[in-house]
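Friendly challenge for the regulars: who can give me the C-alpha cells for this chain first? No prize, just bragging rights.
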Amino acid sequence: MVRPGEKIPVDGEIIEGKSTVDESMLTGESVPVEKETGEEAIGGSVNGEGSLIISIKKTGEETYLSQVIKLVKEAQESKSKAQDLANRAAKWLFYGALAAGLLTFVIWLSLGYSVSFAITRMVTVLIIACPHALGLAAPLVVAVSTSIAAKNGLLIRNRASFENARFIEAIVFDKTGTLTKGEFGVMNIAASSPYTEEEILSLAAAVEAHSEHPIARGILKSAKERQLSIPPASNFQSFTGKGLQGVVDGKEVMVVSPGYVRSENLSIDEGQFNEWSAEGKTVVFTLVNGKIAGMIALADMIRETAQEAINKLKELNIKSIMLTGDNAKVAQYVGDKLGMDEIFAEVLPHEKSDKIVHIQTKEGLRTAMTG
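First reply, four minutes later:
Bragging rights claimed.
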C-alpha cells in the first residue's frame, strides 16, 4: 500500500485505488498524472491524494529508475582521450629512455671506464630522456582547470566532455526544474459577475489550503504573494481526479477540474478556456453554491535566469534546444516564451539519449545537455 504523499518504492501495477502521481522527477511531466487500477506505477514517483495498492513487478536493478542511473554511470566512466594518448606516449617513451640508459651503460663500460662512471652516465641519460613531464602535464592541467572551474561553480566529472566543451554548437535543456521552477503559479484568472479576481483566488485558496496537491500549493502561494486574506474552510472533502469542496463563509465552494464541469454540463467561457489550454496551462474552475464563479489558469513558472541564459547562448551562436517529457502544449508555450530554436516534447528519460544522438548525427551539431 502506498499512502497519500508517499514515494512509490518500486515499479509495479496498480491493482486497487485511484490517485494522481507526480512523475516530474522521472519523466518531466509537470502536471501530476491520474492513475487507476491496471496502470503502471514507476518507483521514485510521488503519490498524490489517494491510496494505492500496487503489485510489485520489478525490483533492484530492473526498475526504471535503476536503468536511468545505469545510463548515467556508463557515461561518467569514460576517460579523457588526450590523457590516454599522453599516457600511451609516456609509456613507450619510458621504454625508449630505459633502453637508451642501458645502452649508455654498456658502451661506457665496453670503452674501459669504471662501473661508477658508467652508472653516472646511465642515470644522467635516464633523467634527461624519461618522459615524466609528459606523464604529469595532462593530469596537472586537468587538476588546475578543474579547480578554477569549481571556484566558478562548475563541477567536472567527465574530462573528455570538459575538453570538448569549447566546440559546443548546441545546448539541449530539460524543461521541468531547469528552464522552469518545477512548481505551479497562477498565470490568469477570469471572474464571473459579481465576483472579482481577488475573491475567486481567495475562495479557491481557502479550500486548497487543505490539500498538498501541486496545483493547490500554486494557488495558495499566489494568494499569499498578493497578500489576500484567506478565510477558513470547513467540511472539507477531496474527490480524486475531480477536485475539492469546502464551506467558506457559509457558501459551498468547489475547486474542480474541466472534466467535472463537463460531467455536470455547466456553462463556461469556451473561448477563454481553449485559449489557455492551447498555451499548455492547467485550468481549474471555482464553483460557489454549484454555479461557476470563475476559472484559474496555472502553469509551471519559468525561471527568471532562463531567458538571460538563452540570450547569451544566442550571442555565442549556440543553438538552444528543449528536450522534455512534458506534454507538447506546455513545451511549446515555454519554448515560445524563451525563444528556443527547437523543441522535443513527450520524451521519456531513456529516450533522451537517443534524441541527443539524433541531434549529433542528423543535424551534425556538437551537443551538450543540461538538466
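The chain has a mean pLDDT of 86. The longest helix spans residues 81-110. Your move, everyone else.
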